[in-house]
Amino acid sequence: MKIALIGYGKMGKEIEKIALSRGHEIVCVIDINNHHDFDSEAFRSADVAIEFTAPTVAYGNCLEAFRQGVKVVSGSTGWMNEHKEEVQRLCKEEGKTLFWSSNFSLGVAIFSAVNNYLAKIMNKFPNYDVSMVETHHVHKLDAPSGTAITLAEGILENLDRKDKWVMGTFTSPDGTIGGTTQCASNELAISAIRKGEIPGIHSIRYESDADSIIITHDAKNRKGFALGAVLAAEYTASHTGFLGMNDLFQF
Predict the structure, then answer these.
(1) Which of the following is catalytic: 140, 162, 202, 217?
(2) 162 is catalytic
(3) Are 155 and 190 in contact, with CB atoms under 8 Å apart?
(4) Residue 40 carries which DSSP code?
(5) Is 133 within 8 Å of 169 (Cβ atoms)?
(6) How many Å apart are CA 216 and CA 248, to the nearest integer?
(7) pLDDT in 10s for each residue of the chain, 251 residues
(8) Among 24, 71, 96, 136, which one carries the catalytic annotation?
(9) Is 210 helix (H, G, I), strand (E, B) or coil?
(10) From the centroid of its chain, how far is CA 55?
(11) Which of 107, 152, 202, 214 is least enclosed, having the fewest CB within 10 Å?
């Protein structure tokens, strides 16, 4: 499979290693200084482009790839809520293909399935309140994380007493804490911590007067995310439309 990389930071380099180890070819690498290479034969030759950049440019990158007739796998977060309807329209009405996920880790896919199932169980026990904390490296621009939002949406779909998520506290890299976890009974607070080089930790806590139930996913490095992105690209090469982790992993 021929792959184009959009974004060549730490994730892009890790994806490159895994893609090459699985026998794929990197035909084009686009980073901040060579956006003109979207309009190149090398880029157009790609079966799939894998995009990991920043929320401010991800949507534009996807549109550029679409214009060149290239399918996209994107793991950039912080932009999909604003542009989801348009992207879905492009996929449905204009034949474009985007595989998007807030997190490509197999472990997170499993964790998400557990989260959904636990929320279904806890729907019967209103004496437990639920909250979430996500922790990431200091370079992450969006808060709460896209993964946290996806997990929260899974809870909201299965827990009748919650119908919206809200930002809780935010702990900045210098240790300053802002915001509050106090919220209405129908709201789910998501707190965010930015510290060091942590790849990603997500903890969901159900709290009652009697006890606590906590589930946590703790990423050790970027390898799981990169492998998942390559697996998604392999899947996307032979599928079309607006795709996600539920298509790739059906639990």
Answers:
(1) 140
(2) no
(3) no
(4) S
(5) no
(6) 22
(7) 999 999 999 999 999 999 999 999 999 999 999 999 999 999 999 999 999 999 999 999 999 999 999 999 999 988 999 999 999 999 999 999 999 998 899 999 999 999 999 999 999 999 999 999 999 999 998 999 999 999 999 999 999 999 999 999 999 999 999 999 999 999 999 999 999 999 999 999 999 999 999 999 999 998 999 999 999 999 999 999 999 999 998 88
(8) 136
(9) coil
(10) 11
(11) 214
Cis amide linkage into residue 55, ω under 30° from 0: no
The H-assigned helical ranges of the chain are 10-21, 41-44, 58-67, 80-93, 106-122, 146-158, 223-236, 245-248
Residue 175: both structure tokens together: 């240790």
Burial pattern 131-162, b for ≥16 Cβ within 10 A else e, equals bbbbbbeeebebbbbbbbbbbbebbbebbeeb
Tokens encoding 40: 């190149």
| Length of the chain counted residue by residue | 251
List the beta bridge partners of residue 200. 219
Verify whether residue 136 is a known catalytic residue. yes
